[in-house]
Amino acid sequence: MTIANPTYSTKSSRYGAEALREAALLIRAGEPVAVPTETVYGLAADATDSHAVAAIYSAKGRPSFNPLIVHVADLAMARSLADFSSVAEMLATRFWPGPLTLVLPVRADSGLSPLVTAGLPTVALRLPAHPAMRSLIRESGRPLAAPSANRSGSISPTRADHVLASLNGKVRLILDEGPTSEGLESTIAAPEADRVRLLRPGPVTAAMLEEATGLPVMTGKDNAKIEAPGQLESHYAPSKPVRLNALRAESDEYLIGFGLMPCHINLSPEADLREAGANLFAALHIADASAAARIAVAPIPAEGIGAAINDRLKRAAA
């Protein structure tokens, strides 16, 4: 089946009461809206409406086997959509609202569109910390499926103008609340009775998950099947080739630095990994728009949130 891909006149509105009402009306009418979270800007639509969810896949050009994260307004809404084990409750209590997505068994009576789960028996849930996304969920009265608001596989958006550059004409409204604070997509974890499986690294690190649960944290997939967003080998990618662990720029390269070093743009001159994470996608957007033919990125330490930064860079370079 071919999904119609209409062209819209895209409007970017500063987040506020009037823009929020307009966004909620569009959500209830079955249309996606771009909205900020603390991680990246998301392309949100009613997670219970298959036509609305199909519009997300269509606007992004996203493969239908890649599941979506469903955003909720509170823990009660989350419990109505998925079964929470004691480990899941522990993680939700510790890290929600915030940049942690939990992959949990979907309830038979959830009412979610089957497109959201991509045929899996689980659903990815997150209670975001950003007031714009939380308010939009409450105002529309719906759980919202919301992948990053960009063409599938390309650089994630951390500002409204990134969304406009990628999805202009594919979405009617962008809520603009400035740059996102975290700058990296959420950590995705699948809690089990005796372990936590880390499906995508993010701002909530493996050490934080282990400290919160007292359980070992295992990385990687158990099988070849996609279980959660962000697991495709090539993802978050600029249009130009990317070279990693570069100590200097070649003549045709735009160098993204880290720590004190000569470069075109620096993720963090102070070598602060959280600052680097917040600046990563914006720097990739700038490098991709430069006159240079290729992009080079300095080495990033792998500890803490550096694991998430290196995960995004590895997929960007794939």
Describe this structure in words.
The chain has 318 residues and is an alpha/beta fold. The protein folds into 2 domains: 11-219, DHBP synthase, CATH 3.90.870; 242-317, Threonylcarbamoyl-AMP synthase, C-terminal domain (Rossmann fold, 3-Layer(aba) Sandwich). It has 10 helices and 15 strands. It has helices at 17-28, 50-60, 75-81, 86-95, 114-117, 131-140, 160-167, 206-213, 273-289, 306-317, and strands at residues 11-14, 33-36, 41-46, 69-71, 100-105, 122-126, 144-145, 173-176, 187-191, 196-200, 217-219, 242-243, 253-257, 265-266, 294-297. The strands form 3 sheets. It has a 9-stranded mixed beta sheet with strand order 2-3-7-4-6-5-9-10-11, sandwiched between helices. Strands 12-15-13-14 form a 4-stranded parallel beta sheet, with helices on one face. Strands 1-8 form a two-stranded parallel ribbon. A hairpin with a 4-residue loop joins β2 and β3 (41-46). The longest helix has 17 residues, at 273-289. The two termini are 30 Å apart. The model has no long low-confidence stretch (mean pLDDT 93).
